[in-house]
Specification:
Blueprint (H helix, E strand, L loop, with lengths): L2 E13 L6 H10 L3 E4 L5 E14 L3 E5 L6 H9 L6 E7 L2 E4 L12 H11 L4 H15 L14 H12 L6 E5 L7 H17 L2 E5 L3 H7 L2 E6 L2 E7 H9 L1
Parallel strand pairs: 4-8, 4-9, 6-7, 7-8
Antiparallel strand pairs: 1-3, 1-5, 2-3, 9-10
Helix pairs in contact: 3-4, 3-5, 4-5
Length: 246
């Protein structure tokens, strides 16, 4: 059983050395999705997430909608544990897997094989677990002998194939994604899409941020529409997509 419970969760980012810069403050207010305010110490803060409350349970496939800066990526990072709430309560039950930044932890000076262990351990896997999967990862990435060459020599496509192959060895109960991944050439894309579909079907809860109506409609049964860090709508995916996309 997996679940996520948010109760009045907010996230504030302090802005230092901002006193007296009224024009800059105004520009920042226009340019950000959050709202400017002040904390109890008088520091200027951007409230990126504002009093979010929702409950996710097994079987939920949630699409996050909203303009750039609405708070989608911040919410995903909250769910992953990368951010802590400034206030409120956020409780997740179940193993969380994040495909927000699949290249995180990749060292360009290390070989592809070494990076498989680096990235795998960042994903919470032991060296023994990674070693058990390494042949499968190498085969899926299609790197061949390049797996023992420093990553700095890789093309961008090879780099992404390696990162994708490692990142998708996990089968978490809660899967977080920021847009659908598109990696490699056409042949590899078909493999990647098949693996992603397999992961989505296997996970208990999916949360994906996307600007694609077709992707959200295809993958999700629920949508949360964020505006300036707040929930504008939360409910049936078709109803909300029709409202949001027009």
């Amino acid at each position: 059983m997996a679940s996520i419970e948010f109760k009045n969760v907010s996230v504030d980012f302090p802005i230092y050395n901002s006193n007296g810069r009224s024009l800059k403050k105004k520009l920042m207010q226009v340019a950000t999705g959050g709202q400017l305010g002040a904390d109890e110490h008088g520091r200027v803060v951007v409230r990126a997430i504002d009093s979010l409350s929702f409950h996710l349970k097994d079987g939920d496939r949630v699409g996050l909608l909203g303009h750039n800066g609405a708070g989608k990526s911040t919410l995903l990072r909250l769910l992953s544990g990368a951010y802590e709430p400034s206030s409120g309560e956020a409780v997740s039950v179940g193993e969380v897997g994040s495909l927000i930044d699949i290249s995180l932890g990749i060292d360009p000076e290390a070989t592809g094989r070494e990076n498989i262990f680096f990235r795998g351990q960042l994903l919470g896997r032991t060296r023994a677990q990674i070693a058990d999967k390494i042949d499968e990862i190498i085969e899926f990435s299609e790197l061949g002998d390049f797996v023992d060459v420093p990553v700095r020599t890789y093309s961008s496509g090879m780099h992404l194939r390696l990162a994708f192959a490692v990142s998708t060895i996990v089968r978490p109960e809660i899967l977080l994604m920021d847009e659908w991944l598109s990696v490699g050439d056409e042949a590899f894309k078909h493999k990647a899409e098949a693996r992603m579909s397999e992961m989505v079907q296997a996970t208990n809860i999916l949360v994906i941020a996307s600007h694609s109506k077709s992707m959200i409609m295809k993958s999700c049964n629920r949508a949360i529409w964020l505006e300036h860090g707040k929930i504008r709508m939360d409910g049936d995916v078709e109803e909300i997509c029709n409202q949001y996309f027009g």
